């Protein structure tokens, strides 16, 4: 039996003037935040490219002609990903996909090149104490060495991002029906289907799932990247999967970047059960799904959980894309939350930032009081198609 909770069930009614004012405010926010995000990202990209330009000029002392050419080239590269991303959200064709993929790779190399530039300046400070002739001789070689390491690291990241791990673990749930003992579920998150990970990537995941033969599949958000594309074509290989107990999906933040309603309709047409603020009972286990947007408003999310009226004598599994609001989820009596979103940080320094933001819940199976939280590093990538310090994975859960 399915239970559906909409905004009308959980939000207090507002007077007409208040409703209009709030709606106007929401519309302004929806239009302004992308512009602010683009401005911030582009400023960071300008500064990163300027640092590389300054470092290369200082360590190799190029001629004026080469220096100007380098400056022009780095300026064009600094705006390349922003331009490609804006095109990708409006157009869908092979040329845009190729441009987006190429600039995403450059974005990944840029990350490691910035590390190389920073370390080059640290080395330059140490050379300050060396004889002038020795420092002049070593300076170019330091740059060559560090930028070569950056290139090798980026290439490793590209290869590592395509080496999908199959992780297996056993989870014990209280009051688990005997029919569920020994059953398996495949947790897949963060495929980011779009211009980088296309239908071929989805086909690869589908073949992997067929080999593992789970009893059911959970897709914990960010199935789509949010860029303009044909959602049916991208996800079609997943529609061929037919686990005995079904496939369940709840939306992530990247579905919100595109047409979330269209994505959900496509998945329903493909036979995937979309849990949009819904609860279903699967042979004695309560499975719940909430889209990312509804978890960003604590009062809304709390009201949704309160209205679920979960059966305390039956285990429950919540698909919640982000490993957050855990106190609310635990208070509602949920047994297990399945999340993604973090990518394990994907590449440094974001591997460290992610651990700082989400703590121990950034990856793996953890406890929050009575609640168990399983966060996957995801199987795809966003931005740079690279992983260094994290690994792509699917998780095969055996229930006990």
Task: Tell me what you see in this structure.
- This protein has 400 residues and is an alpha/beta fold.
- 51% of the residues lie in helices and 15% in strands.
- It has helices at residues 7-10, 16-60, 64-88, 94-127, 132-160, 199-212, 231-239, 253-257, 260-269, 292-295, 298-308, 326-331, 350-358; strands at 2-4, 165-171, 184-188, 216-219, 247-249, 273-274, 278-282, 285-289, 316-319, 336-339, 364-368, 371-375, 393-399.
- The protein has a 7-stranded mixed beta sheet with strand order 1-7-8-9-10-12-11. The chain has a 6-stranded mixed beta sheet with strand order 2-13-3-4-5-6, covered by helices on one side.
- β7 (278-282) and β8 form a beta hairpin.
- α2 runs antiparallel to α3 (64-88), α6 runs parallel beside α7 (231-239) and α7 runs parallel beside α9.
- The longest helix has 45 residues, at 16-60.
- The chain starts with a strand and ends with a strand.
Order of helices and strands: EHHHHHEEHEHEHHEEEHHEHEHEEE
The DSSP helix count reads: 13
Mean pLDDT: 91
Unreliably modeled segments = 1-30
Strand order of the largest sheet: 1-7-8-9-10-12-11
The value of Rg in angstroms is 24 Å
Would you count the extended β strands for me?
13
Oligomer: single chain
Biggest sheet layout: 7 strands, mixed
Structural class: alpha/beta
Share of residues in strands: 5-15%
**Termini gap:** 24 Å
Helix content: 40-55%
